Each structure stands twice: as C-alpha cells, then as structure tokens.
Prior knowledge:
Elements: H1 6-29, E1 52-56, H2 60-69, E2 74-79, H3 83-91, E3 101-103, H4 106-110, E4 117-120, H5 127-136, E5 140-143, H6 151-163, E6 169-171, H7 179-190, E7 197-203, H8 224-228, H9 255-258, H10 260-270, E8 282-284, E9 288-289, E10 294-295, E11 298-299, E12 310-316, E13 322-326, E14 332-337, E15 341-344, E16 349-350, H11 352-355, H12 365-371, H13 380-390, H14 398-417, E17 420-424, E18 429-431, H15 434-437
Parallel strand pairs: 1-2, 1-4, 2-3, 4-5, 5-6, 7-13
Antiparallel strand pairs: 7-14, 8-12, 8-17, 9-12, 10-11, 12-13, 14-15, 15-16, 17-18
Helix pairs in contact: 1-13, 5-6, 6-14, 7-10, 10-14
Amino acid sequence: MSLHGAQDSSNQSNRREFLRRSAAAAAAAGSVPYFAWSPKAFANRDKNDRPAIGCIGVGSMGSGDAHAHSGFGDILAVCDADASRIAKAKDDPNIGKGKADGYGDYRKMLDRKDIEVVSVVTPDHWHVKIAIEALQAGKHVFCQKPLTLTVEENQLIRNACRKFGDRIFFIGTQQRSDRDRFLRAVNMIQKGLLGDIKTITVGINGGDVGGPFAKSAPPSELDWNQWLGQAPMVDYIKERCHYQFRWWYEYSGGKFTDWGAHHVDIATWAIQENGDGMGPVEFDGSDAKHPVPYKDGYPTVDDCYNTAHDYAVKCRFASGVEMIVTSRGDNGVLFEGSKGRLFVNRGKITGTPIDEKWDEGKFTDEDLRRLYKEKPFEGHKDNFYRCIREGGLPVSDVYSHVQMMNTCHLAAIAARLGRGFAWDPKAETILGDEQAAGFLARKPRVGFEIPRV
C-alpha cells in the first residue's frame, strides 16, 4: 500500500489530532510535556511517522531548505511563481522525487488536508500573508528569515500565532543552533562574564549597488503579477526578481533585515532585550547613504537598487546600551563589556574571554538546554520537528523574532529618512514624528491583502 494510502491516511489523521491536542494542552498549562527521548527514537524518520510537507518557494534557498525537510517528512507538493523552479523541484531526487504535485498558486496547496507542514521560502514581502493563511489552514509553519516586511506585519503574525497556538511556527535563524560560536557568546553575556555590556557593534555589510537596469517583458515561465503580490505593479526588471529582490525596499529591508535578522537577533538575545515590550528607545540614521537619490524617504528612480549601502545606525536601549548596526568593518557581532569584549561570526569567536576560557565549566549541557527552551540541543530543523511532536516553543520562536525585527525595520526607517527619532517599544509607536511613523505599515495592492485574525 502507498505510504499515503487509506490506512496510512487514517493513521496520520489520528497522529495529527494527537499532536495538536498535546501542543494545545501544553500551551494551556503553560508548560512543555515531557517525552522520553533518544536520538534513535526521535527524528521523525520512521516511514509511518513522517509528516506530509508542502514547500512554497523552491529557488536556491527554498530548494536547500526542502532538501533538509525531506529528512524528516515526505514532500508531497511544491509551489513557486516560476514554473521552471517547480519543474526542477518536482524532479529533484531529494525534493519531489518525481512524485510531488506542483502549484503556481500556493492557496491550492494550503487547501490540501493531507499536508501538515509548510515551508515558506519566498521573497520577504510574501512571508506573512502566506504564513497566516497556512496557520488558518491548520498547518505547522517553517518560514525563512526575515519573517516580515514592516512593523505592522510583526503585529499581524504575532496575533495569528497567539490565536493558533496549537501550531508550531519556526523561523530559519539557524545561528541560534550554532553551539560553539553564537550560543557560547550568548551564554557568556547572559551569565555576566563580560560584565555590564556597554556597546554592541553589529556588522551586516552594505547592500549591493547597481543600475540603471533594463525593463522588459517578464519571461514566459514567471507569473510576474503573482511574484509581485502585495507590492506595487511595476515593469519587470530581471534584477528586481529572485535573489536580487533584497536590494529593493519594495520587497525587503536590504541588509538591515537580510543580515540584521541574524546578527541583531544574536545581539538582542544575548542582552535579553527581545521580549514583549523590549527593544531600543532611540534610533539615529543620520549616518547613512543610499545608491540613488531619495526624497522624503523614497527613492526618486525606479530602475536601480535602492537599499542603503553605507551606514552606521545607532540604536540606544533604555539601559544605556548602544547598538550600532553598520555596513562597515567585519560581518559579525562585537560585544564590549566592563570586563572584556568578544567578537563572533559564522567563522570564529575571538577575544580575551575566549583565549582565557572565562566560561570554562560555565557552558554546560544544562545551559544549552536553557537556551533551547528546555529542549535537547540538536540540529536546527530537528528542533522544529521535535516541537511538532512534543509541543512547546522552538529555539527560533516567532515572538522574540518579531521584537528583534522591530529593531531592524526601525533602523531601516531611520536610514531612509537620514535622521533620528524616539520609539516606545511597549506601545510600538514612533513618538512625535508622523512622517517616520508612516513607514510602520504599507498598503498592500488590492487582492493581496494580509488576513487580520
């Protein structure tokens, strides 16, 4: 009998209902249920205990994520606005295996009752709409960073996740699963081994510079209207699409959200400024440059990359900590405290505290479990599928992510306007600056509105 035949479908339905009841009960009780665990017993690799997965967005990052998801479940469907990518993913032996269904419209995938998990790896401006509709359809959601396009989208997805608390929502901020570098740094700072943190420098590099680019008819395999989604209808430019979308504020926040979603996340997690109502209270974007002329925060040309490429935006917390988000210097996070300093990125962790092993005996399995929200430390997507089985918040949870994304979006707004403003993180309001506050939300194109739940 087929893996997804009638008998297996009934078993999967029963298992889904059990998992959802378990997660809901855990949320209601305010605790995480305990399950006996061993690496062999877990991992959702048993052929009768593998969730059905749909992958929305199967470009370079999306196909990489799909490969990883296939280790935990069975990919039944793939979706993309580019038909050539659908065909490639369907035939990929590690994704569709020649058996997956292909869709140009993700809503048809969400309508399928047999799909339990969706992976959303689209351009940034599509993330929240698809993610909320997936939650409404009863799916567990993996979504790549940066999750949101605006501060308002942070609020919309947070509300949806609170409403649908029996569904696991996981963000692709994989640095949260790097034990020997980022988790070690976070542990050292949270334990006060560097003393009081004074300054954090977050190096995220600058956006690309390019253009003017030629306008043309979109390629026949691309549904340009669908790709644009909530963004304004404009002429097709090859460099607006696929990977290069991140250098246009219409679809992304440039490096502020692209790399900021990683490094600002580590910085604010380490100093424990990513909970409800937390974050900086002042932003200063006076030291920022864009590759095209700007007026009132908007680019004056439409055929060139327009996100900031040279900047040092200052973000001040109520505690007095200053965080500088900059394109200059090394990519990574530099923490400077009253007792010492350390630098961490994906390739290294350095500084006297590391050389002298200040955390010897103070970075234990218990510490890792604490950082992993009382789950065993393991691979990033392993944590996602564990939480689907057991309930509880994943290591890359939506709530801390949107708090951190507020900071990324506000840094971008300050850079676009070239000035500073005050922010009330509890009320989530820019104070005394109506023009800046106008950038907290964007009006979507008719027909692509984001659900409000």
